[in-house]
Design brief:
single chain, 18-stranded mixed sheet, 7 helices, 23% helix, binds 2,6-diaminopimelic acid, EC 5.1.1.7, lysine biosynthesis
Length: 327
């Protein structure tokens, strides 16, 4: 039983894209064919989606690009497209490599818009996410997407404490590789702990990020985004250790917005900016543009490209069951 997919990426943050209709017919065929072992996990779409994501996002043995140079993905985008007259509407569900569902994904949303434009010809796309509906506009090979208003409120991030974390050190990090680092906690659709450093290239992210990612200060966990000013001072370099990927990604859209929002809150924007100018934030995978205006939603802009298409086993029971059992 296989399911068609397309591989997209936004500045190297890459996703397997599956149309919900294709997934649902694979699920119902699988159940009716009696392939299912009869357990709820085997045919329940949610559990099966998690198992599908675990297997095909794996960086060692997951989906391979044409040259098999790179395996896996930063998540699976399950999409449902409704076409209007000159706009399109897409319901987006991002299942991450650990099987978790993320409330929002900035680069994923931009890839969703490119996918919808490729299918419908529309250039304005409304994307329904668990974090709310976000409007995207496709402009050539770039996509700009509204990202809502960043929030530092403890209830929004969310935080365990009553006070916002603004350039704050966490006692619980003492004795860990993250000891002494200051974090600024902001929700840009998902939680981010932003850490400004002198040079992001000097960070041992796999050692320093996990103590913050799992800190008790963040009851829902958090993504960990490091930022340093570019040499010319006009923008920021960015590196993000992502919750749900449990590792560094080549780009993170909500992370780029978090850098701009935290820089604005800490009066670190270039030339004392108010945030309504486009700010370049540069993760390893490519440049992103961000605005964080005083009176409206943040916006994220950058490339979103289709790389290749194919078919993947949806319910290869020998492999999926194993993955499902790990839950
Ligand atoms: N890992 C994130 C979701 C994906 C965010 C990132 N890929 C982006 O482009 O915003 C989380 O679980 O909060």
């Amino acid at each position: 039983m296989s399911v068609p997919f397309e591989k997209y990426d936004g500045a190297g943050n890459d996703f397997v894209v599956v149309d919900d209709e294709d997934w649902d017919s694979a699920v119902s065929e699988h159940a009716s064919d009696g392939d299912a072992d009869g357990s709820a996990e085997d045919t329940s779409p949610t559990a099966s989606r998690a198992a599908f994501a675990r297997i095909h996002c794996d960086r060692e043995v997951g989906v391979a690009d044409d040259g098999a140079a790179r395996h896996g993905a930063d998540g699976v985008l399950f999409l449902s497209l409704a076409e209007g007259s000159d706009t399109a509407e897409v319901t987006m569900t991002l299942v991450q490599p650990d099987g978790s569902i993320a409330e929002m994904c900035g680069n994923g949303a931009r890839c969703v818009a490119a996918w919808a434009a490729d299918r419908s010809g529309a250039t304005t796309i409304d994307i329904d996410t668990p974090a709310g509906t976000r409007r995207a506009v496709v402009e050539g090979d770039e996509v700009a997407v509204e990202m809502g208003e960043p929030s530092f409120a403890p209830a929004d991030v969310p935080l365990a404490g009553e006070e916002p974390l603004i350039d704050a050190t966490l006692d619980e990090l003492d004795g860990t590789p993250a000891a002494g680092l200051s974090v600024t906690a902001v929700n840009t659709g998902v939680p981010h702990a932003v850490v400004f450093v002198d040079d992001v290239d000097e960070i041992d992210i796999d050692a320093v990020a996990p103590p913050i990612r799992h800190a008790e200060a963040f009851p829902a966990g958090t993504n960990v985004t490091f930022a340093s000013r570019t040499v010319d001072g006009a923008g920021f370099r960015q590196r993000t250790f992502e919750r749900g990927v449990e590792g560094e990604t080549r780009a993170c859209g909500t992370g780029a917005v978090a850098v701009a929002a935290a820089a604005k809150r800490l009066a670190r924007l270039p030339d004392g900016g108010r945030g309504d100018e486009w700010l370049t934030v540069s993760p390893p995978g490519g440049d992103l543009g961000v605005t964080v205006p005083p009176d409206g939603p943040a916006r994220l802009r950058g490339p979103a490209e289709k790389r290749f298409a194919g078919e993947l086993p949806a319910f290869d029971d020998d492999r999926i069951d194993g993955a499902g059992d790990e839950q």
